[in-house]
Amino acid sequence: MAYLIFGLFVFLGVHSVRIFADDWRTQAKARMGEQAFKGAYSVLSLMGFGLVIWGFGMARETPVLLWLPPVGMRHAAALFNVLAFVLLVAAYVPGNAIKARVHHPMVLGVKTWAFAHLLANGNLAHMVLFGAFLAWAVLDFISLRRRDRAQGIQYPAGTLSATMLTVLLGVVLAAVFALWVHGLLMGVKPFG
């Protein structure tokens, strides 16, 4: 569990610099240079992510059950994960109304994904992993929206065709991930 927690500290800490120390980040980028800063950011992120994966795998070997989720929670989690994939896709498809409305769909997608996994899993390692990502995403979303308001950022209205494409791609990716990829990567088949 210690590796998982340390990995989360590093990974989410790097991704929280803009939330808690935006001035320091700006100064560090100016001092180090754009490329060096991005390189250090990437290396720390990858190290943290690697520790999260390794620590989570180790923690899953000796699970500590906190509660047993009802079967219905898995169905709710599946629906929330479809929404999370749609939000993730909305971050990349230009001109969709979802991004125009929520402004930061990827972070909202992380919140939705983490919440879904908290619903469907009741052991300590899952609570730590997904609880940390949910807490980070809530803080980041608030920070991003506050920054948008302070800078007067306006998002252009989306088109129906881009929004429909976003939803379609999100649903297809969610299905592919749930039916095949999740089992390959995580060893757990949500529907099998």
UniProtKB/TrEMBL annotation:
Its main location: membrane. It holds the Pfam family NnrU. Coiled coil: none annotated. It is found in: Membrane. Keywords: Membrane, Transmembrane, Transmembrane helix. It is a multi-pass membrane protein. GO terms for cellular component: membrane. It comes from Rhodoferax lacus. It comes from the Bacteria. Residues 4-190 form the NnrU domain. The chain crosses the membrane at residues 40-59, 71-93, 113-139, 160-181. This is Protein NrnU. InterPro entries: NnrU_dom.
